[in-house]
Amino acid sequence: MELKDKILSSYVAFENGVDINSDVHEIRSKALENFEKLGFPTKKLEAWKYTSLNAILKKDYSIFPDREKAIELADVKEYFIHDIDTYKVVFIDGKYSSFLSQTTHQHYDVCLMSSALNSPKYKAVIDTYFNKVAKQDNLTSLNTAFATEGAYIHIPKNTEVEKPIQIINFTTGSEAATMVQPRNLIIVEENAHVQIIERHQSLTANAVLTNAVTEIYAGKSATVDVYKIQNDELNASLVDNTYVNQKSNSVASVHTFSFGGNITRNNLNFYQNGEHIDSILKGITIVEGKQHVDHHTLVHHIEPNCESHQDYKGIYDERSTGVFNGKVIVNKEAQKTNAYQQNNNVLISDKATINAKPQLEIFADDVKCSHGCTIGQLDDDALFYMQQRGIPQKEGRGLLMFAFANTVLESVKIPEVKSRITKLIAQKLGVNIGFDL
Questions:
Q1: Where in the sequence is the domain holding 54, given as residue range(s)?
Q2: Of 235, 250, 289, 434, which has the maximum CB count within 10 A?
Q3: pLDDT in tens, 100-110
Q4: For residue 436, what pLDDT is reported?
Q5: Does residue 259 sit within a domain?
Q6: How many domains does the chain have?
Q7: Would residue 191 be called left, alpha or beta, if left means φ above 0 and alpha means ψ between -120 and 50 degrees?
Q8: What is the CA radius of gyration of the chain?
Q9: Does the residue 285 lie in any domain?
Q10: Is the pTM of this model over 0.85?
Q11: Does 385 fall in a domain?
């Protein structure tokens, strides 16, 4: 049975097994109808022209893994940012782990999506925010139809969360092949501030497919910083759909660090609904072998006097493939917009591939918009200069690549995250760096 047919045939049993209010049931049903009509994306779609899911969709995934496998903190501690105090919302094979988590309802909610969907206490918030900014495309609709669990974060007005929040999804290999679909809802009200670290991590050699959806709402003058660490096993593939709705004077940033996994597709969408908004999208990709990473971004400038900054760096070795498809839309009313988009790539191997497609759609006449893309190799002259001063070639190459990525790292606000990413980059490049950038 094909995966799509397996999913559709299991929906009735799934709905009977969850306790959910009627409004969400209607949203689910419509989402399933949409997925049934659209199916999985193929390369015939312009947005998926350079990324094929065919190979990974042939696996016989367990859609609702029910075998529970306990894991100890010592076994997974390395995947946490453990050198600072954080809230933690942890899931194992799609199910909440109270043992590994640290949640709260004091001053703000850092808890579970299942609680928010099922409790009358949260009904007004769910009715206002759930599935309102997410697109009705193939994989987002699939996630919506089966969304049961994930992180629910609600920060009230004028509140600063005193420590970062980590959202971590582990898969253990309790099934031969596992499909998980976490759904996160993050609401940051007026003048509130939160920092979030998100990670999907396979602990198995078995196949894993994660189809994640995160909706983020940044109220007036709110600040939201999100860090996505993607350094998974080669058997794991990820489609990460993130939607950000911003109000006036808000600042929202998403930093994406893609180092591991088989196929990784990041769909990142920002919608600016107000004036004096700043949207920041940055990423570093370092892959090798036959790894494939696709960044698909959208920033929609709807009202005047707003800014957006995109800066993506890619380093590709062996037969790896990178895709950057970035779009900026500036509405006619969005005068005085300042939109910057840059994608720079280094190909270490002549067999590596990068497909870049920066796009601007501008309907206003008083704007400052720019985009650029470069594809090249390391500077041989700079490498020769470093070797003349006693730096071995391998370390010289590593230093040049660190310098190449520094424009992304310098805007990371959590020092411990910056240190962790620096070490991951050093490991990927196979060099010893005695300092943090």
A1: 3-273
A2: 250
A3: 999 999 999 99
A4: 47
A5: yes
A6: 2
A7: left
A8: 21
A9: no
A10: yes
A11: no
